[in-house]
Amino acid sequence: MTQADRVxxxxxxxxxxxxxxxxxxxxxxxxxxxxxxxxTLGEAxxxxxxxxxxxxxxxxxxTARAALVAAVDWHSALERELPKDKRRSFVTVWDQTIVETxxxxxxxxxxxVIRCHSAETEAxxxxxxxxxxxxxxxxxxxxxxxxxxxxxxxxxxxxxSDDGKSRDWQHFLIANLAEIIPALSNECA
Length: 189
What we know:
Elements: H1 15-30, H2 32-39, H3 46-51, H4 53-81, E1 90-91, E2 96-97, H5 104-129, H6 135-148, E3 159-160, E4 166-167, H7 169-188
Antiparallel strand pairs: 1-2, 3-4
């Protein structure tokens, strides 16, 4: 199984990038109905669907992404509400600058956005590292990854692979599915 280890992922750093991210995250949440429909494809036994670990990973990622969307919404609202001289602090995965005269809500929001971004990235790494155990799980994973990534920017980049190379999330998804689909196909035959 190919594992993804988080090296770093750049969170959205400007308002237009954050809004772009929000739009794709909203599409991911809206894709929930499509995932539930995919779960019924080719799967007769409901207990198998519940036991597939990929379903919990999909839900964990959906929850982490929803928290990130809420944090970015809050950040955008504060950008509109607070004067620029009260929101000069910034926090990234590499650095932080805290301006003591900033509004405390702004400072808290900066930390919340980066914390939620990190949690979403971790959930994405887990999602693409777990092997589905049913064809319905494969279908749900594929549907979710498409629905959650509306513009090619919604998933982690620069993940460390087992061979030490930096790769995007698709590499891990494809490698893991290529490993398990033949066995699952034989079970369905």
